[in-house]
Amino acid sequence: MTSNATQPRFLWWDGEMIPWQEATVHVTQMHWSAVSAIFEGIMAYWNDEEEELFVFRLDGHLQRFLRSQKLMRMRPDYTEQQLTDAITGLLRANEHRSDTYVFPYAYPAGGGRYRNFSSAEPRPAQITITTQPSASHLLARDLKSACISSWTRISDNVMPPRIKNIANYRNGQLASSEATINGYDMPILLNTAGKVAEGAGACIMMVREGKLVTPTGTDSILESITRAAIMALAKDLGVEMVERPIDRTELYIADEVFFCGTAAEITPVTSVDRYVIGAGDLGPVTTAIEQRFHDIVRGKDKRYASWVTPVGAARAVSAD
Ligand code: PMP
Question: How confident is the model over 194-234, as pLDDT tens digits?
């Protein structure tokens, strides 16, 4: 690592590990490139006892990365295995020894010109991968207030929310700004049918009558990796899991509500539109899920060893 803790030595760009400062493009390449750009947000968690970094659900994230590329008509020049090697190699090279955010990003090559806006053939992509320290807030009692946004969630026939297209984030950005201006921590967006969709950068779950309920995969949500993981671990904890459309007023009278996602991790929500959720504190189901999730992502719960990829952090130090 360099002396600047947030700026690692290397990033990965189209098959090569290059020094951070040397990763530049001509300014004209910026213009239209982000419209079709897609990305992933992946967390790698540091395990102090094992002195190892574990990447959470790297397989699922990279499969979604390839799906996002496909939907945006980009040529998939790198396989899941090549990208796996790129990410674990980069994490080792940057010698991360703390929780780290991994950001693979793909944009159409030559995307800086409007005349390259559409193409009959899948376009070649440029891919960068960066890694930066990002502390987890799991188990930190990070309780949030939420509001129903006046902005509607984008839908499949407008801008498909199931993939991570950068342009999609304009929608969540509008909702987040509105929530902040109005004194709430986070927005909840409804879909075009008026049902609960998701947060600005996180999926949503609620507890009603002892069941964990979340909107369905066709309710205008991202195909979230964390959501899928929580659905599986809730079953393991003996909590009944239901996917169905949710009305906004169900959130107001829910026993527990939380956001989930790579950056959101598990974020408990204690009020929605100033309606207090449950006792206005961390609920028992959220607590149990958060504890189990924490142990899984740090590679402590070996029953879920297949969900995490060890980076080989010890090798990184001895290799130099
Ligand atoms: N919805 C949106 C809009 C998001 O940006 C995210 C974060 N990637 C999520 C949900 C949660 O998805 P994941 O669990 O894959 O991070």
Answer: 999 999 999 999 999 999 999 999 999 999 999 999 999 99
Q: Which two tokens stand for residue 15?
A: 């098959």
**212 three-state secondary structure:** strand
List, for residues 17-74, the tens digit of each pLDDT value: 999 999 998 888 888 888 899 999 999 999 999 999 999 999 999 999 999 999 999 9
The helix or strand, by DSSP H or E, that contains position 182, with its residue range, turns out to be none
226 lines ligand 1 (CB under 6 A): yes
In the numeric block, which tokens belong to residue 150?
A: 């006046």
Q: Is 111 helix (H, G, I), strand (E, B) or coil?
A: coil
- Cα atoms found within 13 Å of the Cα of residue 145, Cβ hemisphere only: 11
Can you read off the two tokens belonging to residue 157? 């026939």
pLDDT of 286 strictly over 80? yes
Is pLDDT of 6 > 70?
no
Closest CA to 185 of 263, 274, 278: 274
Helix, strand, coil content of the chain in percent (nearest 5): 30, 30, 40
Q: Is the CB of 68 under 6 A from ligand 1?
A: no
| pLDDT of amino acid 320 | 45
- Active-site option among 70, 144, 164, 211: 164
The answer to whether 284 and 291 have CB atoms below 8 angstroms apart is no
d(CA 234, ligand 1 centre) in Å: 18
Q: Look at residue 1 in the predicted model and tell me its pLDDT.
A: 41
Any alpha helices (H) in the chain, and if so which ranges?
A: 33-36, 58-71, 80-93, 169-181, 225-236, 248-252, 284-297, 313-319
The structure tokens 């982000």 sit at 34
Number of the ligand 1 atom closest to the C-alpha atom of 161: 3
Using the structure block, give the residue that is written with the tokens 């998939």.
Answer: 76
Task: Kindly report the protein residue whose alpha carbon is nearest to atom 5 of ligand 1.
Answer: 201
User: What percent of the chain stands above pLDDT 90?
Assistant: 86
Active-site annotation holds for 235: no
Return the residue matching tokens 């409804």: 190
pTM: 0.96
